[in-house]
Specification:
This protein is about 30% helix and about 20% strand. With about 375 residues, it is of the alpha/beta class. The protein folds into 2 domains: about 25-120 and about 235-360, no CATH class; about 125-230, no CATH class. It has an 8-stranded mixed sheet with strand order 1-2-3-8-9-10-11-12, sandwiched between helices. β2 and β3 form a beta hairpin. It starts with 19 loop residues before the first helix and ends in a 14-residue tail after the last helix.
C-alpha cells in the first residue's frame, strides 16, 4: 500500500513546507480520500517487481522523488486505461545496462518504449526557502475556493511587503469564477490557468496561478499555495532540449519507437511554449542537424504541473518527432496530438479525448461524490 492505516482526521490545510505525500496521507478532505483510493488502485495494478522502489520514492518527503514516482504511476495507469499492456524495465537488444521505464503493447500488437521524466525546480538556498515560506504563509491566510501555484521568477533585495502582496492576490482571486476555470482547465490545454504577475521595486517578480478546487465554490477554505522556488531564469528552449537529449542519449539505437513522457513542473511550460521550444528558433526538432541528437525519441508526451489533485483536469499532449529514427503510429494515442508535416513546414494540432476520459475518471474528479 502507498498510504498507512492511520486515522485521517486532519480537516485543515497543509503545514508550510509540508510534503505533498505527508499532507495527502493525513488529510480528511473527501477529495483526499478519493485521491488515495484511486492511487491505491493504480498501485495495485503496477508490476510487482517495481512496487517496492516506487513506494519508497512516492512516500518520500523529497519533492523530486515523490513527483517522479507519481508521474511514473500516472503514466502506467494512463496507458493501461487505453487497453495497453505495460511491462516494466524491459531488456534492450543493444545490450545496454540501462532500461526504459516501460515496454508497451497496443491492442493491435505493436510495441513501443516509454521513458518518464519529471522536470522540476532547482535547489533553493536556506534564505530563498525562508522567504518562500513567508510568502506561502501570507497567501495561506486568504479564504478562497482555490489552490494557488506560486512561481518565484526573481527574488528582491529584501522580504516583500507581505500585507500588500496578500491584498493584491486576494483581490485578484475575487475576480475569478471557479466553475469557469475548471471548464477551461479541462479544455485539452496545458496552459489555461489564470495568472497574476506581481512585482515590486526591490526586484521581486512572482507569478501566481489559480487552480480551482472541484466542488469548492462558495466554501470557506484556505488557499493552500503550492511552491516553485526558482530565482534563476531558465530559457524554456534549453529546458525542453536538455530533457530530450538526456534521455535520447541513454539507450543508443533502439529496435522500437520510444516515447518520452515529460511532466514540467513550471507553469510556463504549456503547449505553445513546448512546441515553440521544439520547432521554433533554436528548437531541438527545428532542423536536421540539431535533431540528430534526439532521433531515438519518436514522440514526446507532454504535460505540466501534474499533481494528484489535477490528474483529471489536465490532458497530456503527444508531439511527434518528424526526424525520428522509428516512427510512432499516431493511432496509439487517443488524446490530443501535434502532427508535423516537414515538407509543408506545418504543425497541426489534432484534438483528442480530455484527460479525465483517458483515465476513465468522472469529469471534475476529485469531488465529494464522484460518478458511480
Amino acid at each position: 500500500m502507498l498510504f498507512d492505516d492511520s486515522v485521517k482526521d486532519h480537516d485543515g490545510i497543509a503545514r508550510p513546507g509540508e510534503s505533498e505525500y505527508s499532507f495527502l496521507n493525513r488529510s480528511a478532505w473527501p477529495s483526499a480520500e478519493q485521491a488515495r483510493q484511486f492511487l491505491e488502485q493504480w498501485f495495485s495494478e503496477y508490476p510487482g517487481s517495481g512496487k517496492a522502489d516506487l513506494r519508497s520514492r512516492f512516500t518520500s518527503d523529497d519533492r523530486r522523488q515523490h513527483l517522479g514516482a507519481f508521474f511514473e504511476l500516472y503514466c502506467h495507469a494512463l496507458l493501461r486505461a487505453q487497453g495497453m499492456v505495460v511491462n516494466l524495465h524491459p531488456n534492450l537488444s543493444t545490450g545496454s545496462a540501462a532500461h526504459p521505464d516501460f515496454l508497451v503493447r497496443t491492442r493491435d500488437g505493436s510495441e513501443f518504449y516509454v521513458e518518464c521524466t519529471s522536470v522540476q525546480e532547482a535547489n533553493e538556498t536556506s534564505r530563498e526557502r525562508s522567504r518562500a515560506l513567508q510568502i506561502h504563509r501570507a497567501i495561506n491566510e486568504l479564504d478562497a475556493p482555490f489552490h494557488v501555484y506560486v512561481e518565484i521568477e526573481a527574488e528582491g533585495m529584501r522580504t516583500p511587503p507581505l500585507r500588500a502582496l496578500r491584498t493584491d492576490v486576494g483581490n485578484w482571486l475575487k475576480t475569478l469564477v471557479p466553475a469557469v476555470i475548471l471548464a477551461q482547465a479541462r479544455d485539452d490545454r496545458l496552459g489555461s490557468l489564470p495568472e497574476l504577475t506581481w512585482a515590486d521595486e526591490s526586484g521581486w517578480r512572482i507569478r501566481f496561478h489559480a487552480i480551482a478546487r472541484p466542488g469548492g465554490a462558495g466554501a470557506k477554505q484556505k488557499v493552500q499555495p503550492f511552491e516553485d522556488v526558482d530565482v534563476y531564469y531558465v530559457k524554456p528552449v534549453d529546458e525542453v532540449s536538455q530533457a530530450l537529449k538526456k534521455k535520447a542519449e541513454r539507450y543508443g539505437e533502439l529496435d522500437r519507437p520510444c516515447v518520452l513522457a515529460v511532466n514540467f513542473s513550471r507553469h510556463h511550460f504549456n503547449e505553445q511554449v513546448v512546441t515553440n521550444s521544439l520547432f521554433g528558433a533554436g528548437g531541438v526538432w527545428a532542423d536536421d542537424s540539431e535533431a540528430a541528437s534526439t532521433r531515438q525519441v519518436s514522440a514526446a508526451l507532454v504535460t505540466s504541473l501534474l499533481v494528484v489533485w489535477a490528474v483529471a483536469a489536465y490532458t497530456p499532449v503527444l508531439i511527434h518527432n518528424p526526424h525520428a529514427a522509428r516512427v510512432l503510429d499516431p493511432a496509439v494515442w487517443s488524446g490530443p496530438r501535434y502532427r508535423v508535416d516537414s515538407l509543408q513546414g506545418s504543425i497541426t494540432r489534432v484534438d483528442g479525448l480530455p484527460g479525465w476520459k483517458l483515465l476513465r475518471l468522472p469529469e471534475g474528479w476529485p469531488t465529494a461524490q464522484p460518478d458511480s
